[in-house]
TrEMBL record:
One of its GO terms (molecular function) is pyridoxal phosphate binding. Keywords: Aminotransferase, Pyridoxal phosphate, Transferase. The keyword Nucleotidyltransferase does not apply. Belongs to the class-III pyridoxal-phosphate-dependent aminotransferase family. It comes from the Bacteria. SUPFAM superfamilies: PLP-dependent transferases. The keyword Transferase applies. Pfam families: Aminotran_3 (PF00202). This is Aspartate aminotransferase family protein.
Length: 408
């Protein structure tokens, strides 16, 4: 059924009347999607360079995901994690087989994975009898919206308005090796964890260097502190490998996951390395929905598809196309200050506010995200075709050229 602009007006009116006003929404409501394309209530087509913020990595309406959902809802959606579950067990097994030896806790979102990691780190500090433990986190990081999430997040704008945050968290600048060494020295004997995203996503795609992460690994090992990698955004193929840490030559002690894990179904996970798998004792943490049969089945199928369809080679070939076109564009347009990232996790730093650029792209049928005030973030589905990747880049190029002309 074809809907009209009035349908959107009605949706907007109901939203404004009944939904808490917490987000600066774009004036569109999508009705359906097919792989890299989304269609709004007027059937206008958009190329999706956002993937629901790095969530629908396999695109929209993947037939195998739909089939897995159908089969599973016919059988069972939810019981309780008080019972064993074939689906949750299979998911835990495939996660460990493809990351590092250890054990998995399943939850429902990235924030809950962060919370689990935070509790694990606090429990570790108690077990080591450290009275004033310190967690080192990064300025500009993002780890979620709960109180532990915002406490670990290195962005002042998220810290205010909620009273006292959790203490014992110190922030250092990303990629400053001197600051990291100094923090470990200043809090010698007290540092229990270092937490970081391998590429800082929300504040504008800031990749941590290999050298910096190596140093973090060395310092955490020397100080018996946990290296916690937040791969909630970088995980599941976004950067060209299943997990971003794989290219580093070492693994973290704790890894948090969500977003792309569920292909759109809300699910999160924390993986804990063997050495620390007893830190959280029985009964000290839990969840009602985490690891339910349906979510676990979808996540298992998501990983299986990434592997069997060789999605990563598509990520790498599309990444080459995107980076070479964007770097070429940078030569021609002064408003582009930098193009950075890895795989299909790409940031374009511009010298003007990014939001109007994202809005103009949307008018022209391309969904991109403005983040960190002056960064256009590109995260298309990992299954995007080179045709739609190039079509989307054409739109972006046109819009950036318009904004460049306005600067003169
Ligand atoms: C790196 C990172 N950590 C944590 C989160 C929080 O995840 P969620 O929104 O699923 O709670 C996000 C979400 O954007 C994220 O990008």
């Amino acid at each position: 059924m074809k809907e009209t602009a009035t349908d959107f007006q009605k949706t907007k009116e109901l939203n404004d009347k009944y939904v808490l006003d917490l987000v600066n929404r774009y004036p569109i409501a999508f009705r359906y999607g097919v792989n890299e394309l989304l269609f709004d209530q007027n059937n206008k087509q958009y190329i999706d360079f956002l993937s629901g913020v790095a969530v629908t990595n396999l695109g929209h309406s993947d037939p195998d995901i739909i089939e897995a959902i159908r089969l599973q809802i016919d059988k069972l959606m939810h019981t309780s994690n008080w019972f064993y579950s074939e689906e949750a067990t299979k998911l835990a097994e495939i996660l460990i087989q493809n990351s590092f030896p250890g054990k998995v806790f399943l939850c429902n979102s990235g924030t809950e994975a962060t919370e689990a990691a935070f509790k694990l780190v606090r429990a570790y500090a108690e077990q080591k009898h450290i009275a004033d433990p310190i967690i080192i986190s990064l300025q500009k990081s993002f780890h979620g919206r709960s109180v532990s999430g915002i406490s670990l997040t290195g962005q002042k704008k998220m810290h205010t308005g909620f009273g006292r945050l959790l203490d014992g968290i110190e922030f250092v600048n990303p990629n400053s090796e001197d600051e990291l060494v100094a923090a470990f020295e200043r809090y010698a004997g007290r540092v229990v964890a270092f937490i970081a995203e391998p590429i800082l996503g929300e504040s504008g795609i800031i990749p941590l260097t290999h050298g910096y992460l190596n140093l973090a690994r060395e310092l955490t090992a020397e100080n018996e502190a946990l290296l916690v990698l937040d791969e909630i955004q970088t995980g599941f193929g976004r950067t060209g490998t299943l997990f971003a840490f794989e290219t580093l030559g070492f693994s973290p002690d704790v890894m948090t996951l969500a977003k792309g894990l569920g292909s759109g179904f809300p699910i999160g996970a924390m993986i804990v390395a063997e050495k620390y798998e007893s830190v959280l004792a029985k009964g000290t943490h839990g969840t009602t929905f985490g690891g339910n049969h349906l979510g676990a089945m979808i996540a298992y199928e998501t990983i299986r598809i990434i592997q069997t369809r060789d999605i990563l080679s598509n990520v790498n070939s599309c990444s080459d196309i995107a980076f070479s076109r964007l770097r070429q564009l940078q030569q021609n347009l002064k408003i582009i200050k930098e193009v950075r990232g890895k795989g299909l996790h790409i940031g374009i730093e511009v010298s003007v506010p990014a939001r109007p650029i994202a809005e103009k792209c949307l008018e022209k049928g391309l969904i991109v995200n403005a983040t960190g005030d002056t960064v256009i973030r590109i995260m298309p589905p990992l299954t995007i075709s080179s045709k739609y990747l190039n079509d989307g880049l054409d739109i972006l190029e046109g819009v950036l050229s318009e904004f460049q002309r306005e600067q003169k």
